[in-house]
Amino acid sequence: MEHSLAEAEAQGCFKAKANAKGGFKALPFIISNEILEKVAGFGLNVNFITYLNMQYHLSHANAGSLLFVWGAVSNFAPIPGAVVADMYLGRFMVVAIGSIACLIGMVFLWLSAMIPGARPPPCDMRLSPELCAPPEARHMAWLLAGFVFLSVGAGGVRPCSMAFGADQFSRHPKERRSRILQVYFNAYYGSIGVAFMVAVTVIVYVQDNLGWKVGLAVPTGLMLLSAVSFLLGSGLYIKDKGSKQMFAGIGAAVTAAVRNHRAWLPEKTEDGVYHHLKDCKLTVPTDRLRFLNKACMISSTKEDKPSNGAADGISDRGRLCTVDQVEQLKSAIRVMPIWSSIIFLAQAMNQYFAVPQADAMDRRVGAGGFRVPSGTFAVFNMLTMSLWLGCYDRWTAPALRRLTGNPRGLTMKQRIGGGLLFGTAAMAAAAVVENARRRQALGGGGGGAMSAFWLVPQYALAGLAEAFGVIGVIEFFYTELPKSMASFSMALLYMIMGAGSLAGSLIIKVVHEASGRGGRTSWLAEDLNAGRYDYYYWLLAGLGAVNFIYFLWCGWAYGEEGKTVEWEDEGEGETPMA
Predict the structure, then answer these.
(1) pTM of the model
(2) Are the beta carbons of 102 and 150 closer than 8 angstroms?
(3) For the chain, is the Cβ count within 10 Å smaller at the N or the C terminus?
(4) Domain covering 325-560 in this structure, CATH number
């Protein structure tokens, strides 16, 4: 991190009255809330497939499918959460409600480990899975109640926490605010990295060595501290209220386009026949998706535009939206094909089956034979991503600039494409390693169990997929969509993760049932050695290759980056261009 928050304040970035709200004194409560919530969440997610398998007697396929669905719901939940925060309750109230909901969800999961009747009778799934009683409806109801509360909490915390921290500097002078926000965002993302490292090492170690009663009690306690720390700072926060104008622009454009869909559109786009705001220089819509221009068309030509502004119904400006609202809708529609091609990235980033794979491998390290917890190998994902991001701006990007002539080194679509390729490579690496592990376990390789550190390449490739793909996606949406749609751009990212989780769950279900027909052993059998998880990974790699071709077509159809309309920033006086 280039400068700490304290250094930014010492350099004069923050000069406010002692009794003023917001600023740096509010950040410890907000960042503490985020760190503790992330430690609890990461510590739960990375190893929870083991809990569902060993304590709830779910097969690896069913447990993985359930986690994919839960992940999908948790990633879609921030969309209504952002709407409620920005339009009605404000970010403080939504983060507070989300933190409390997360705490309630963690309590449900902790009690599922504490109360014997909340889960099936004890049974060793490793020795005799066929003899273990499956969970009953009451057991699943307890478990799903915890998932529901955690998803509601994710819907409140994920889209609002970082933005709420930025709100604390909204009353600072603009020239100082930009520098402060840069420091704040560095600290925020740094806190997420620290949280992940702690979760996949300390929390996973506690779960593997002290049992699930303690292993779930620790995240629950951390979630309690998270909620309390956030609420304790309530009197220090700047609390902006919600505004119902958030989606008014896109909503008005959609309504007007439907209402005026029968209107005749002239062959040429002409100045003076489209409804626009006073003093706004964006007076003519673009020719992309021209049929939407009907939504802001006052009349078909200058000559037949009525003087009273009410002929043919379409000249009634009460039925129209403005040119910039139409262009916002066009921008949202144009990015959707590329959005759909990135769903595979979420599938590649979820390494759920790597945990049971690690359980079946040799995890010992050092002379003392210390066993690395299975879930801890996910740390190589974050390490790879962090190292790449740290090196990219300093060394990689300048070298790429000299080769490509692009100021960014790589275009945004090239970075997204690189992420998809690395995600496909991660699946292929997982297939190769699983095939080798299975052959050695069945006696073909000799020398005992294969080292679990052979899983590092697939984790590292998944980390590169995230570093290239996710960062590229964020930058692409933020750049290609107008700034007034920044919340929508983040919502699109969460929708990718949610859709990817749903697709992953569907693939697991189809593969498990199709490969197990006719009395055959399923590829995703409970016994990894009896199943063919390597075939499953090869299937994903093949889908990734097909998806990459689809992405290339979407990128070609989208056209050149940076050619979208530039909107006038409110209050800035910049000149928009078409």
Answers:
(1) 0.73
(2) yes
(3) N
(4) 1.20.1250.20
